[in-house]
């Protein structure tokens, strides 16, 4: 929780691309400023200096710390003003406590400022000193976009191959992102073209990309081609589309490889890198996402707060005698929840994690529930690791 005891004026910014709406309130709740201002450094400096000169210590609070909210935060830090972030979902819940149902920039800015004044526990600190995290956030965000694009193109390829030749898709589909398969589809976009190329030519084409698999893959491809003699309508059109999609997918995957190298460099340069990656199942991308969203963990009073923020704390449902039990939460930071879930899935090879997962399965939980329980347990362990600055230690066999 951010200490607001020494703050003399609270400035809430409902940030926008070209303009922000700024509302300042005093500790007594009186408005000291309520206007729109351009998203430029001179105007921001002018407002911050005016409020500091008239009232004293200024706390600048935004509802979006990245992208369009980056400049106000940078200017505030440069002028020595403390800064904070009010998550959008939290702000929407707080808005229900205020009269009126209008959704305006002025109302939102006032709610941000007043929440900072009256409910400081809802604020999240923003570490302005860590340039590594800022760069990681930008690159990881672009990597997430590329991952979505790769999934979209791959699904389109799966659909086309299934439509024109299901047997061929069963062979190539599981290996669709392999460089050898993409090279094949870039060169030959239809079953007829693949058959015409012949075994020897295909083996020579694929061997540089898959030395061990080339001959076996070619035999599987021709066995699949022999299973279908008819030509499905649309095959000729697919022959034009498939090479283009394969080339696009190969380009996106190459970009992700380059980004992965840079993400790894940035992650290794951060002091918490060794702590994060010492836990089984946390790799480069999941470690970077956890570092971006959690930082050093100091903004979370307890492990329960971290679990709730990540959407890993089960929500209790109880009403009379008919509704009792717990359900997976629907709120929380989805990217952080996904990172914890992926790391939990990857950690099933770790004996301690596997034993806990099997224990939950034995209790009657299905796979998704057991994985969520494991992710929550790992969040608790990670919180303790960040708090104490210690590496992951496997649970002793006697304790297990």
Major sheet: size, sense and barrel closure?
Answer: 6 strands, mixed
Taken as a percent bin, the fraction of beta residues is: 5-15%
Structural class: alpha/beta
Strands of the widest sheet, in order across it, are 3-2-1-4-5-6
Radius of gyration: 27 Å
Q: Please tally the helical runs, counting DSSP H or I stretches of 4 or more residues.
A: 17
> Shape from CA axes?
elongated
Helix content: 55-70%
Residue stretches low in confidence (pLDDT < 50, at least 5 long) are: 396-400
Number of strands: 8
Ends: how far apart?
A: 35 Å
> Helix and strand string, N-terminal first?
EEEHEHEHHEHHHHHHHHHHEEHHH
- Average residue-wise pLDDT: 89
What this model shows, in words?
It is a single chain. With 400 residues, this protein is α/β, with parallel strands linked by helices. Helices cover 57% and strands 10% of the residues. It is built from 17 helices and 8 strands. The chain has helices at 41-55, 70-78, 88-95, 105-118, 131-164, 166-172, 179-187, 191-197, 199-206, 214-225, 235-269, 273-277, 284-294, 303-309, 334-346, 351-362, 367-388; strands at residues 9-14, 19-25, 31-38, 58-62, 83-85, 124-125, 315-319, 323-327. The strands form 2 sheets. The protein has a 6-stranded mixed β-sheet. Strands 7-8 form a two-stranded antiparallel ribbon. Strand 2 (19-25) and strand 3 (31-38) form a beta hairpin. Helix 1 packs across helix 2, helix 5 (131-164) crosses helix 13 and helix 11 packs across helix 13 (284-294). The longest helix has 35 residues, at 235-269. The model is unreliable at 396-400 (pLDDT under 50).
